[in-house]
Automatic annotation (TrEMBL):
Pfam family, one: HTH_18
Record keywords: DNA-binding, Membrane, Transcription, Transcription regulation, Transmembrane, Transmembrane helix
Gene3D superfamilies linked to this entry: Homeodomain-like (1.10.10.60)
UniProt superkingdom: Bacteria
Ranges that cross the membrane: 49-74, 328-351
SMART domains: HTH_ARAC (SM00342)
HTH araC/xylS-type domain segment(s): 704-801
Name used for this protein in its record: HTH araC/xylS-type domain-containing protein
Amino acid sequence: MEQQMGIEVLETIGYDAEEATPYGDGRTASMNRRFALFRKERWFPHRKSVLRGMIVFSLFASIIPIVAVGFGSYEFSSAAIRKEVNQANGRLLDNAASSVDTMMQRIENNVIQMLLGSFFGSNLQELKRSNYAGFYSSIYQNLSALQNSNKEIRDVTLYVPEDGYLISPSTGGRRLSDEATRSQLAEQMAAEQPVRWTYAPFPFLSENDPYGVTLVSKVPLYAKEPIGLLVLHLDSGLLQQMIARYTSYDGENMLILNADGHIVAYLGDAVASGGLYSSLKGASGPETRFTYTWNRTPYLATSVTSPYSGWIYADLIPVRALNAKSRGIALITAGMVAGFLLLGLCLALWGSRRAYRPIARLLAQVKGNDAISADLDEIGFVQMRWTELSETTSLLQNRLNEQLPFIIEMFALQLMQGHFAHYSDSQLRGVLEQSGIPSGREGAVFLLAYDRAEGGEGRFTANDQGLIVFTLKNIAQHMMEEYGMSGIAVHLLSEQAAVWIWDDAEPETDGGDWQARFKAFAEAVRKAAAGYLKLPVTAGLSDCGVPSELPKLYRQAAIAVRSRILYGSGVSIAYTGSLLEEADDYRYPIEIEARFDDALRLGDAEETDKVLQEFAAYMRKAGDKPELIRMSYCQLLTSALRTAYLIGARQAERLDEERTGLYADIGRYRTIADLDAFIRGKIVAPIVEFVQGKRNQENERLIGKVVQFIDTNYHLDLSLDQCAELCGLSPYYLSKLFKKMTGASFIEYLTACRVERAKALLRESELPVGGIAERVGYQPKNFIRVFKKVTGMTPGQFREWSGEAR
């Protein structure tokens, strides 16, 4: 019997029974020793064992690093190739974008130069009335010259809405009868920008190209009431030719996408641009790289964004074409990994068996007749029963200790909220005694509330509301123990913490000192919380009363905290009966509101700030009702939004979308200073900025009009008064505005314009000096004096010098 048990033990720990017993046949024992290495049970027992864990751990410890190194080397080489290709593609895309941008800038400059030329810069309405045929003939000649000098232009057309006439070098002249197209062109003429690129299709263009881009310009360029609209369409085929020379891989695709995600030009397969554009737009940085899959084929996508047009230039190279270079590395890596895996497997099996031998001998001595469960290993069998008992005991004790404080806190919260108001005195006394709270002692409540720090500073963010209230409660709980006070701190759901303190001393021995200690303790807690949180913390203190009056004390503390809109945050506020009194004689300051609206209309930031200060000072004197003050600020906000609409501020639409959030913010702020800062930063600043910006735009337009008038009529006897009358301004104001916008006075600019034209006539013609003087608007004698003052030489000397220079 004992022999049989010994055999079972040896077989359990992995030793051969016949090899160990002295009774077996010698040859059998020898064969067992020879083939024991190949027994499956010897290496991998059916039950859990330390040996199996050691073998598995050794295998993983040897296999994982080898596989990681192999895959890592392959991924590193592939990533290096992708990075190199991506950098090269980035440079190619930059070159492609630069070529296309240069071409677009050149065409735009040529169009502007043509529109600023002598023909389009003249009075086209007068020319049309006086010489109708010559007017359209000149337009045809200028458009033909523009198209001939720019091979990228597919078609160029000038639309004259007064005649409903289209004239183009490609299709000649024809009338436009389609009302939809006329409306489309009218919208383009009504746009603010005089010259712009667009992607809208125009049906009247010959052989309308679904891709490409169109340049639209008013004619004349800066006219308030243009006579026509110039529509110029670029050939997308030429764009394809420009980007074709930057591709080098089989199956490579290159696309140009506009700011709306539409294809301007593409090369290769017609890749769907919707998902690709979302990926390109969602990436950050001026240059991005990612993998994009289309038609089950992964591509390496590289993109750059043009700073001129905002277009996205994307290059898609099939990953299989990139991986061709790294396939040789993959084969070598796979062979090395396989060899090292085989070696690691052998070493792991041999080493595990060697390390397990001491454990097997120890188990043979201590196991006895007990069977080991298949779910346990040798060491786990020893620890199992002790662990079960210890865990059960600890779990029950921890659950009891964890739940008791929360139960008492929830009871105090329900008591403050009046859930036990229907209890009789005896019933309430019993509930209090069960929670360890003295029923006959006087107590008081104070609430702790935090506000946002000025400038957003502090150690917590806006999303840490629950954490901040939890910190307030814990600080109060800790300081109660430090100061020897008895009470309960409660985490409220209203972004506040409540602290209920009661007096431990007998009423006849207290001597009235407890109320003073309560106020001092509340102030100490408030200061400690504010110092730790780096936030303004306000404490609202109630009167004193017995536990049955706790709901009333809680409401008093809440009213005291709300009154910080009057007294400011970061202080301790004791409840007084006056906090519930309404200001019956309160009157909304309508005269201050009227001055506020006037300052907004004028964009006067200084006056607006002054009026807001007066409004805040009036609110501080208005009364003790926080709701009344918030209502007044809501009315001021409504007045500001109405003013924004009346002056046509662009911000008005955004402010209207945020209207609900704006009024909600007024209810969230706790002090008059916060409400004043909110109105100042959120409402006043954008409206004042808009008014001032609109004024600057109008000044630029007027000065541009004067400059164009001087450049066209420099040969006439011009004066500052004429230009002022043209703009509807006073000469004095125009002179100051002209100097500010151009950097030169009116006379200096006119003189420079005339001298430059005189230089051109002296170089390019044989006209006498007197004739040139008359052409540029001078008397000969004055001309020579002015010319020498500006250039340092007489007109004759300049002509002689120019001839020698040629």
